[in-house]
Amino acid sequence: MKEPLLLDGREVSKSIKGQLKGTIDSLTKEGIVPKLVTILVGDNPSSHTYVQMKANACSKIGMESERIFLPTETTTEELLQTIRQLNEDETVHGILLQHPVPSHIDERQAFDTIALEKDVDGVTSHGFGSTAFQLNAYPCCTPAAIMEMIDFYNIDVEGKHAVVIGRSPILGKPVSMMLLNRNATVTISHSRTENLEQMVSQADIVVAAVGKPKFVKGEWLKEGAVVLDAGYNKGNIGDCDYETCYNRASAITPVPGGVGPVTIATLLRNTVLAAQQKAMMREVSHT
Amino acid sequence: MKEPLLLDGREVSKSIKGQLKGTIDSLTKEGIVPKLVTILVGDNPSSHTYVQMKANACSKIGMESERIFLPTETTTEELLQTIRQLNEDETVHGILLQHPVPSHIDERQAFDTIALEKDVDGVTSHGFGSTAFQLNAYPCCTPAAIMEMIDFYNIDVEGKHAVVIGRSPILGKPVSMMLLNRNATVTISHSRTENLEQMVSQADIVVAAVGKPKFVKGEWLKEGAVVLDAGYNKGNIGDCDYETCYNRASAITPVPGGVGPVTIATLLRNTVLAAQQKAMMREVSHT
């Protein structure tokens, strides 16, 4: 059996960061250091790890970052206040609210309070609409990372049948719109889908965004399918059963080292673009 | 062969308008007459007919309406100015920019200049995002009309496979999101789709939103499929070949008298809701 192409997220991430370096340097020379602020509410240990990783990634590439920790008992209104202050803060280019927030908080309202021009994680409903309509908005990071993988490895999307498993606002829905805008035929499936296996068996491209470890089995796949696994479950396990999928796929993302690292790279890029946009606006207002 | 259920848009429209009557009356008593302003740029005869139909529908149900006609040579900036004035105008509850505008105008920018709270036609990218995420926004009228048909005739959507043909921002994309939010498995197909017929042949529900007369043939359909035809081509011809589809479908929308009349009813409803929202805001600010 032919081995599948490994879609190495670390390579893709390196390439994106390489492209950013020059922009960050010239912005810094102009006195603008791209700055990301992450907000973490509560003390979920995985979330702590994620925001730490994002801060490290910023510092490594010469960007500024700040982490705001809010206690679990923070109210929605208090969180919105924090976001509004960051919206106003001229030195902040990107705002990321770490998902999930404690259940008593209205996460959607918090996301939608982030100013569109600072929504570098691509979580606002307005940003989603703009992405779906191919307008100017920072694309949601994990879906954008999946598209980066596709581009880096020249995976053919046009006219292909992509089956997305999952329909969340920050993964299934946006990646479906992005694939559609690249001329794939897109099926969005989910927990209520009847005959999911049969649907997956027709896919040229499978995007797993379901949040259940080893959910997609190799025997569901069409021989030669492209498998993009956006899942990150406890113990570094993806949404696809890697071993069995590996045997059927023509290309596959490993977990870890697949979509994850590219997600962080897209976050950095969105933040740099936001800083660049800001610099351009400043120039315009000076002329 | 069993005759299919006819999804009569005139019946659905009558039902929606019946429900609106009471609200319009009580708003009028409070001194608020729901008002829709339509903007028509250029002299497309079909567009003239459409805005006239919308104005008539308003007047019949006791709503106000105003038609603004702008010449073909109107610039994007001039159109945006008109929209911004209507955004500010306290007496206007809903703004509809008749599609299509002359090709030199940036239609998307014009749509997105309409204030979200007056976007009763549901054409803004922000409104699309809000609808996709099931937030509070006026849903795009033709997709909303399709959902009304489904509800009125108790068509089972949950877990069913819906194939949408077309991916426009005001039809294919929003109806896909609405069906998805009702737990259908949704495939979005389009001009670049390979094997469209095979895809359609698997559908429990087919939504034709492709803009090509008699495009969908009866022989493509699974026996017993539900056929929702959102097309309106010259000569009152739908996107589906009605005769052959009729023989295979379990339920079908006629053209004319299908989705069209319901679209206007959803526009009236969105405008009434916008006026009601306005009245509520006024009350809040008075207390």
From TrEMBL, chains A, B:
It catalyses: (6R)-5,10-methenyltetrahydrofolate + H2O = (6R)-10-formyltetrahydrofolate + H(+); (6R)-5,10-methylene-5,6,7,8-tetrahydrofolate + NADP(+) = (6R)-5,10-methenyltetrahydrofolate + NADPH. GO terms for cellular component: cytosol. Transmembrane segments: none annotated. Keywords: Amino-acid biosynthesis, Histidine biosynthesis, Hydrolase, Methionine biosynthesis, Multifunctional enzyme, NADP, One-carbon metabolism, Oxidoreductase, Purine biosynthesis. Residues 7-121 form the Tetrahydrofolate dehydrogenase/cyclohydrolase catalytic domain. Its EC number is 1.5.1.5, 3.5.4.9. Residues 141-278 form the Tetrahydrofolate dehydrogenase/cyclohydrolase NAD(P)-binding domain. SUPFAM superfamilies: Aminoacid dehydrogenase-like, N-terminal domain, NAD(P)-binding Rossmann-fold domains. Pathway: One-carbon metabolism; tetrahydrofolate interconversion. The keyword Cell inner membrane does not apply. InterPro entries: Aminoacid_DH-like_N_sf (IPR046346), NAD(P)-bd_dom_sf (IPR036291), THF_DH/CycHdrlase (IPR000672), THF_DH/CycHdrlase_cat_dom (IPR020630), THF_DH/CycHdrlase_NAD-bd_dom (IPR020631). One of its GO terms (biological process) is purine nucleotide biosynthetic process. GO terms for molecular function: methenyltetrahydrofolate cyclohydrolase activity; methylenetetrahydrofolate dehydrogenase (NADP+) activity. NADP(+) binds at G166, R167, S168. Pfam families: THF_DHG_CYH (PF00763), THF_DHG_CYH_C (PF02882). Homodimer. HAMAP family: THF_DHG_CYH. Belongs to the tetrahydrofolate dehydrogenase/cyclohydrolase family. Catalyzes the oxidation of 5,10-methylenetetrahydrofolate to 5,10-methenyltetrahydrofolate and then the hydrolysis of 5,10-methenyltetrahydrofolate to 10-formyltetrahydrofolate. This is Bifunctional protein FolD. The gene is folD_2.
